[in-house]
Amino acid sequence: MEVNTTASTAIPKIISCDDIPSSPSSPSSPTSNSASKIPNPLADELLARCLKVSDEITLLEKKLLQRLPPKQRSKKGNLPIELRHFKNAILVEQRLLENLSYSPPTPKTQHSLRSSNLKFLESVWSIAKTCSGLQVIFRTVQLFDHPTDNAAKLRGKEKKELKRKKTPVQVDIIAQNGLEWIKVAGLSEKRLETEFAKARWEAEGFKDEDDEDGQSENGDKLDHEENGGKDINQTILEFQHDSDAFSLVKSARSMVLAAQQTRVQYLHPEITIVLPNIHYDPQNPQLGSATHTLITAILSTGARVQTSNRNIISPTPPPGDESTLTDNFGNAITNRSQSLHPNHPPLASSSSSSTQTSPESVAEAALTSLSITSDPITLITPKILLDCTILLALVSDLSHESVAEQPIFHRHILQQVRAENEEPLLPHWVFPSIEGREMICTFDAYKRFKEIVDIVGSESEKLRANALVWGGTGRDWRHPSPSKLPLKSGSNIINGGNKDTGITFTEDGEPLLPDGRTRTSLLSTLQSLSRHQVPKTLKLPITVVDSLESQIMSHNPVAAKIGPELSVVNRSSLFTAWEMGITIVTTNGSVVKRLEWLVEENRIRDDDVGPKVHLLAIARSLVGKMKKGTDILVEG
């Protein structure tokens, strides 16, 4: 995505009207000039705030670009955070304010400025900067008019009718890597109380008219039940629900319904309604107040509510800190702990109370955090499982050496050679995903990997394979998988399989293999066989563990149903990572897509989830002995 780095410089400079030279060819009277030179301070102030938001967006885009591989930086729409619609809204507001800044402060222009959409845009931007895993600002999702459980089975006319039967739902912010949808409402407490007072007044007037209509012919009033059965409080509540304030409740309900028709990482997104201009204390709710009535109505839809004092109220509060958000995996969601009001500075910590932090540095830190947490790598667990495709990419000559195109190469090898020359796989994609993390692989994946390396691998590829993976003491990959043997101890299963790796540790805590090799020597060997810089934080060796597929299939009915649909090697890696609750790193996109489909088709409960997967959609094969017309050996 191309970023306009001169966005702030391309904007016309705001100058004082006194600095505009008068035209020498048209001498004007003081009266006529004074009308055209009156400045508009309010417009200038709003424009300066608008330009500040625009500059911060540009800075965020620069930070996001810096985190992308060089080849990806020139592609449009490639940033991990989608800002296009929000940028357009800011640009529209900026142009309006630029025009008004040169106009006299007439009642018409002042009304336009007071009704500016900038305050809402600032609130959205301020809240977005406090989010973790930000993905989108301003997106329209679709709410289908009826359940779509059988949508995949519809064909022809029925499918076209289904597409027409949907309602657009506006989502202001999508964060937590898609697991949280946020709606920002600029409703103030004063406006809320005014609307509720108006609703009460209208309800009482309606009740008086209803009472007059409810009199009998002799002038006596009918009983309450005979007159419709509604008391004044119920009538007031109905009028409140028809007010503009309660349109927010309708929006929350639509978002919740749309989220129930959407799955991200096997889960339904959570809905949060943010009220940055309303203060609410759940410990002192002031029952019957306008604020309490509105928040109770929002919570009844299944959405959460966050107010200006940073409290996050859930329909079913989690144990402990009520302001803590968790996703359906049980992972804690970062709380938006900064002030939600765009004009309020973040609360200073006690450690820095004596040091004043400039707004620029605060914004810089917030944007840096946004750029980091938007990276999918942050979702990878500290311990990871590598499947056969990643192991092959880690040892391939294509990944480590400058391989020239040869006419004897298979066409897929030629494509990979060209892709590697344009964008190296290891430094830009693989190493950032695995460095600093403990790495394991299953025996089935290791066995398949060793078979491929022994058959088609070059000498350098075999040396890399020997430096990368440690199969364990006294275990031969040519023998049947240990997962077919009787189960071992419970602690052994929980820790991911075989504990008899033969690895000890030096006094410095460095792994020591039985053959005398250490992590330092393994890294040195790998570095000598690569043109790329090998990270010092790469935790070699990759250790081999027993498969846990039988364990998870014994207690997880979803895994038991979909297990026969996967190959032995794929099932071994995916199910072991699933059972251990760790991330599996793979380049096998077709298997990942099929797994997601299988989980959806065979889920038993709504909260059933599959394994955590980090997909690198760029594969590498071994080039060693590959000839034209030969099928590439890939994971079965």
TrEMBL record:
<dbReference type="InterPro" id="IPR010733">
    <property type="entry name" value="DUF1308"/>
</dbReference>
<feature type="compositionally biased region" description="Polar residues">
    <location>
        <begin position="323"/>
        <end position="338"/>
    </location>
</feature>
<feature type="compositionally biased region" description="Low complexity">
    <location>
        <begin position="339"/>
        <end position="360"/>
    </location>
</feature>
<feature type="region of interest" description="Disordered">
    <location>
        <begin position="16"/>
        <end position="37"/>
    </location>
</feature>
<dbReference type="Pfam" id="PF07000">
    <property type="entry name" value="DUF1308"/>
</dbReference>
<feature type="domain" description="DUF1308">
    <location>
        <begin position="386"/>
        <end position="469"/>
    </location>
</feature>
<feature type="region of interest" description="Disordered">
    <location>
        <begin position="203"/>
        <end position="228"/>
    </location>
</feature>
<protein>
    <recommendedName>
        <fullName>DUF1308 domain-containing protein</fullName>
    </recommendedName>
</protein>
<feature type="compositionally biased region" description="Basic and acidic residues">
    <location>
        <begin position="218"/>
        <end position="228"/>
    </location>
</feature>
<feature type="region of interest" description="Disordered">
    <location>
        <begin position="309"/>
        <end position="360"/>
    </location>
</feature>
